[in-house]
Design a protein that fits this description.
38% strand; Neuraminidase; single chain; mainly beta; five-stranded antiparallel β-sheet; 15% helix; 4 helices; four-stranded antiparallel β-sheet
């Protein structure tokens, strides 16, 4: 064996040995609330780039084939939705990107070209049939794509409005128009504008800056209103049926409400970009708990934008869960910045432990509220005496 062959063989051995990955230490699970409290949410994993989903090509393989590693990553995501093993992310700087959990790929939405081209998508929702509704406030339209991700039609004229979220219910598409402070209702089949919601009743009940929409199981529409610092509950005629939260820096209040979602129990998940957390309420506005905190560690949030709740893909994410944690639903939350842009959490319970009922939680929170009120009154009285 001559020296050249020996050298080449040595190089190949070095590269191959470098490909043998060291045993990975499984990170400690991240729970909310933090121990010793009963865990209700576990952080599972995150998706930011093609490296988080596509099979890793070894250094040896790249050496032999001469192929260069190409990494595609999210830039500034906002909206997120999951359906049939695919996570759809509205990247306001790159278009709609798709993490395919089954095919292990990360690619742009195939139908977003030609008449279906997007300019700056911000939000996406998916109906039961797999149709996607993407809001593009720069193109000033909502674009619909079918179950195969191909373009179907656009809703709304590219005029004086700003569509920032769209959700289908029955044969109607409801669109949040932040410019005109209303929710527009379009006929799904024809695209005709049917009516506008948000100016019914007294002026104090009008919408100010609607940004995100979600429906409960009874057909009530929940509107995240950044201008009112509230989640507003409307019937489909636009009449206000209730509100959640108010301006403030306490739990149950909002500073910058954004994405919302509802689960099968009609519990409301609401993102606050100022608090860097997600608060969970009953449908009538009672705070249950919250999860997430500002930071850059696994499970932390960094200017979060949208939340989505999913039941279809629990089996796929089960591998990330602590063996003692029983998953009820998957919750996705986007970060607009940082190293973890689509965070995946599990809503669930630790096996074998008794959890308080929602009624017991209500009573406990009411007791805490009364205590805080009494302490505030005592403080005010003491200050007046001085």
């Amino acid at each position: 064996m001559n020296n050249h062959i020996r050298s080449l063989f040595a190089i190949i051995l070095l590269i191959a040995s470098g490909c043998a990955s060291a045993p990975q230490v499984k990170p400690e699970p991240v729970f909310y609330p933090e121990p010793p409290a009963l865990p209700r949410v576990q952080f599972l994993t995150s998706f930011t780039s093609s490296k988080d989903i596509e099979p890793d090509r070894s250094s040896f393989e790249r050496f032999v084939t001469g192929a260069k590693e190409f990494v595609r990553r999210l830039d500034k995501p906002y909206g997120v939705a999951i359906h049939d093993g695919r996570i759809y992310v509205c990247d306001t700087n790159s278009g709609v990107m798709v993490f395919d959990l089954n095919k292990k790929t990360f690619n742009p939405l195939p139908g977003a070209q030609g008449r279906g081209r997007l300019v700056q998508p911000i939000n996406i929702s998916i109906d039961r049939e797999g149709n996607k509704y993407v809001s593009d406030p720069v193109r000033r339209q909502v674009l619909r794509y079918d179950k195969n991700d191909f373009f179907v039609r656009a809703y709304g004229d590219a005029g004086d409005w700003k569509p920032v979220d769209a959700v289908a219910y029955g044969d109607t598409l409801y669109v949040a128009d932040s410019k005109n402070a209303e929710v527009k209702a379009f006929d799904l089949a024809s695209g005709a504008l049917l009516r506008s919601l948000g100016r019914q009743g007294e002026q104090k009940d009008w919408l100010v800056m609607p940004t995100n929409l979600a429906f409960d199981s009874q057909g009530y529409l929940y509107v995240s209103d950044t201008g009112r610092f509230q989640i507003v509950k409307l019937d489909r005629d636009g009449n206000q049926r209730g509100v959640i939260g108010q301006l403030g820096n306490q739990l149950g209040s909002f500073a910058r409400p954004r994405g919302i979602a509802l689960d099968r129990e009609d519990r409301v998940f609401a993102v606050d970009a100022a608090f860097d957390n997600v608060q969970m309420f009953t449908g009538d506005g009672q705070l249950l708990f919250f999860f997430g905190k500002a930071g850059k560690k696994p499970g932390d949030l960094y200017l979060p934008a949208k939340v989505a709740v999913d039941y279809q893909n629990i089996e796929y994410f089960q591998r990330y869960a602590d063996p003692a944690f029983e998953i009820e639903a998957i919750v996705l939350v986007t970060n607009q910045f940082g190293g973890s842009m689509v965070n995946v959490y599990a809503l669930g319970r630790e096996k074998g432990r008794k959890y308080p009922t929602e009624e017991e939680i209500r009573e406990l929170l009411e007791e805490n509220r009364k205590k805080l009120k009494q302490e505030a009154e005592k403080k005010d009285a003491a200050e007046k005496k001085q």
